[in-house]
Structure formats: C-alpha cells, structure tokens
Automatic annotation (TrEMBL):
The lineage of its organism: Bacteria, Pseudomonadati, Myxococcota, Polyangia, Polyangiales. Residues 228-339 form the STAS domain. InterPro entries: Bact_StressResp_Reg, STAS_dom, STAS_dom_sf. Pfam families: STAS (PF01740). Keywords: Coiled coil. This is Anti-sigma factor antagonist. Residues 189-223 form a coiled coil.
Amino acid sequence: MTQSRPSLTIDDVPIAWRFDDGDLLFGGLSSVLFWANPSLFRMLSPLVEEIGTDLFRLLVARSSSLGTAEDYRDVVRLGETFEQGFLSWGRLVSMAGWGAFELPAFERAACAATVRVRNAWELRMQAAGGMRWGCPFLQGKVIGIFGRALEQRCWADEHIVSEGAEPVVEFRVHASDRTIEDELHRLRLARLRARQAELTQHMAAAALELRRKDEEVEQKERLIRALSAPIIQVWDGVLAVPLVGVLSRERAAPICEELLDRVTSMSATHVLLDLTGLSEVDAAATGQIAAIVSSLRLLGARCAVVGLSPQLARTMVELGISFAGVRTYQTLADALRQVVGLTRGPARRSF
C-alpha cells in the first residue's frame, strides 16, 4: 500500500484508491461513490418525473440486465452450485452497498425462485426522498441472471415487503414469455398511441376554434360591408346605397351582387348610388361602378349617381366609361326629391 494508492482486499475483491487520478477501483473496475440520498436520489428523481415511473423502471431494468452475462459467469465461478454461487455473488455486491441478498427458494425444475434483498440500495435511496419507483435496477439483474441459470425466458415480479428502517424487497421469479424489450415496446407503443390521440384531440379542438374564429371574421366582414355600403329602402321601390371609404374591386363585387339580389327580391325600380363618402376609388372599382349601373339597367331599374367627385369623373373619362343616360346629383337630398316626388306639385317625376 502506498500513500497515493491505498488498497485493500475483502472476500477476494480488491478495492484501491488512486488519489493522484481521482479514481476508485472496485474489483479492478473504475467506480464512483455517491451518497444514496441525497446525491443519487436527486440525480434520478427528475428523470422519473419527466418520463414517468413505468418507462423509467423498464429503461433501468433493461440497462442493468445488459451486464448480467458477466454477473452469471461470476455466479458460476463462485460456487459449486448455482445457489451457492448466487449467494457468494450477493455478498460481493453487498460490499458495494447493493443490499443483503438471500435466496429463500430455488426450484430449477419448476423454473421458480424467490430472491430477497434486505436494505436494498434503491429503497434506501428513496426512503427519505418523498418519491417511490421501486427497484428496477435489482429487478433487471435478477431477470438476467436467473434467465441464464434456468436457460429460458423468465420474469421477476417485484414485491416491496418492508419500507421501514431496513427496507426489504422480494423478487418472485417464474417462467414467462415477457421480456424487458417487449414490455418497453408495448409501453412505448401505448404512449405513442396516447400521444397521437391527444394530438388528434388538440387538432380537432384547434380546427373547431379556427372555424369559430373564421365565422366571427365572416360575420364582422358582413357587418362591415353592411355598414360601409348599406342598402336602404327609402321609398316604395326606391333603394339608396351610400358608399363610404375606399372602394376596391374586391369590395365592389359583393356590393354589386347583393344590390342586384335586393333589386330583384324587392322589385325596386330606382336605385340611388351615393358616392359622396368615397375617399379613394381605383380604376378597377370605377369599372365596377359602371358595371353596377349597366346591371341595374338590365334588371329594369333606373340608377342615379349622387356625389360624383371631379377625380372620379376624370378617371371615368380616362377609362372611356360613360354614364350616358344616368342622372347625376350633387346631394342625396336632391336625388330623393326628384325620385319620390318631394317637390312642389302633386305629380311624381321620374328620371
């Protein structure tokens, strides 16, 4: 033993400390010493919370079972019978703090066994942590070692016997078609299906909300169109359409469609198209106004244009659009007086 590399041997297991390298060798393998609680518990508990107890247990069990080929070779080497070798192996790993191993029952012909671990390290770790996920590490070791000893697939059911000052866990080994890999696949598939169902539900809810919002937008657009271009019956057979704001092709088209429908349904004979409130009209919309006037003529309704601005008039001239035969008025009042006969005298005037 040197000062920088002290060592000792317990039950033929060499333990050495390499202070210069910051390493601990247990049985010749580089090892790390952690406190069961809080160090290991604080390291593992966030993973349990993140992925869930079932998936965590299976992942740990699979990982611990991967080294059981070497463990089984040690078991065979350490005893004349499997039982003796397993208990000797248990004494070796107990020196690493795994717990005290017992083998109350082993029936090779029946493919059955009971493994008891007193003061199991996983239970000690969880005792003061406020979370419980059992002993998947020890379960994976038992499944792997006994599967090789019995030369067939087996499973180890875990039973927590005691969680007191000296916690005890029992593993009841029996023949089974279950494997850790199969259980992992089944669990992942179930989680995937659950996630897909959740996503489908979220998508359906999102689609429903989108349809609701689309309907709200459509209602608002209809309201805006109605407010910006209301079709008002001002007299029997007389409709007034005051246009406000910016008139584009996109806005003019539905106004024309709705106006023609109203003229037909109400048997209107006169339409007053009030352009006084328009702030901007593009060339395409100017053509739409002309189309509205022409369409009204085809339906037999007379159209009068109110508030034609100089800018709009110039645009119409530049585009070669003519309102020949269409009466124009400066104000809606002038047009109303003319159309409904609100001038002096009993007779109504037409245009």
